[in-house]
Amino acid sequence: MLPWFEIFGLNIPVYGALGLLGFLLGMLYILLRAPRLRLSADDAAYIYVFAALGGLLGAKLLYILTVLPELAALLRAGEGADALMGCLSGGLVFFGGVLGAVPAAYLSARAYRVKLADYLPLLVPCLAIIGCLGRVGCFCAGCCYGVESSSCLAVVFPEASLGAPAGVPLLPVQLFEAAAQLAIFLALLWFTAKPARAGFAAEFYLLLYAPARFVLEFFRGDAGRGFLGGLSTSQWLAAAAILSASLSFFMRKRLKMPD
Amino acid sequence: MNDNNRGGQVPGQNEAVVSLIMGIIAVLLWFFGYSSLISVVLSIVGLVYASKSKQLGFNGPMRTAGFVLSLIGLAGGALIFIACVACIGTIGVANLLRF
Fold first, then answer.
1. How large is the ipTM?
2. SS3 B11
3. Which of A51, A107, A226, B31 has the maximal Cβ count within 10 Å?
4. Contact A121/A198 with Cβ under 8 angstroms?
5. How far is CA A247 from CA A209, A242, A251, A252, in A?
6. Distance from A188 to chain B by nearest Cα, in Å?
7. Residues A236-254: pLDDT tens digits?
8. A21-31 pLDDT, tens per residue?
9. Which tens digits make up the pLDDT trace of A182-229?
């Protein structure tokens, strides 16, 4: 819809700008919320920044994995520069971001001699904020589009869109996911308000987001996302996330952790 | 003179200074096109040094300034790098864009 906007003669990508805005809103949330949860805003801010860097790396690496055949084809055709640019600017995979952020956050927390589990109620809602704005960015860029539809909700992308076929009514599945992430963020605010529940923030997020993502993937129309056995990479990762979050929830509940 | 406090310096202060310098250079490098990629690298170095300073127990405003400037340098550098250089590539490989 609006892939770029111009500032001082530079074409700034809306996708990147909204991702950055999501990151900054996450930082603001941490700084405002940390005192209420009786946590150090300084420790939380550092863990958040390094988790975000790890997340960015994970999201990019998983993206490269999912488009490896296309990148290999570009390299075989002697278009190495296009392949490199595709890697640098092509896209990110949200679940890869989660997988990259967790070890980075763990290592940072260890370096500052704090327990990562204590900081999860503060850090997990930031994932939902970044995910929400990232999806709005996808809609603006015209990537991650939905299937063709005659529904009244369908939108038609213009010629300038990156990826989405122009002139075809498509489901705005990016906005559906943005709405889901916003709802999850609000639910997390309520959930983490009570200290007894706050320790389960990560499980709560995964048990809400992963099923939503699994279902929404069926309504996506962009074909080259990496498929295995009829399910997309993200659907397999969503299934694994549901399983691991459920196991973690029941095991910790059984061990009566946290109180 | 105490070995840990030579010249009036406290542990982690040097790391905070390095972080601040990296942050300043990173922001300055925004304005020279392709150098915004160096800005990204220097910002990450600045963040790591701010983190080291924190680990050593230095809590001065210089560390916070270094951390914030490095963060600003990273965000701006990444956006400008994509805007200056990678957009050309994005148009060529638009069908690879996804999240």
1. 0.76
2. coil
3. A51
4. yes
5. 16, 9, 6, 8
6. 23
7. 999 999 999 999 999 888 8
8. 999 999 999 99
9. 999 999 999 998 888 888 999 999 999 999 999 999 999 887 677 788
pLDDT at B22 (0 to 100) = 95
Average pLDDT over residues B3-29: 84
Structure tokens at B18: 């390095």
Please identify among residues 197-216 of chain A the ones whose CB lies closer than 8 Å to any CB of chain B.
none
Q: How many CB pairs under 8 A join A and B?
A: 112
Which of A21, A85, A232 to probe by mutation at the B interface, max B CB count within 10 Å? A85
Residue ranges per structural domain of chain A: 4-144+156-187
Of the partner residues B51, B80, B91, the one whose CB lies closest to the CB of residue A111: B51
Domain boundaries, chain B: 8-96
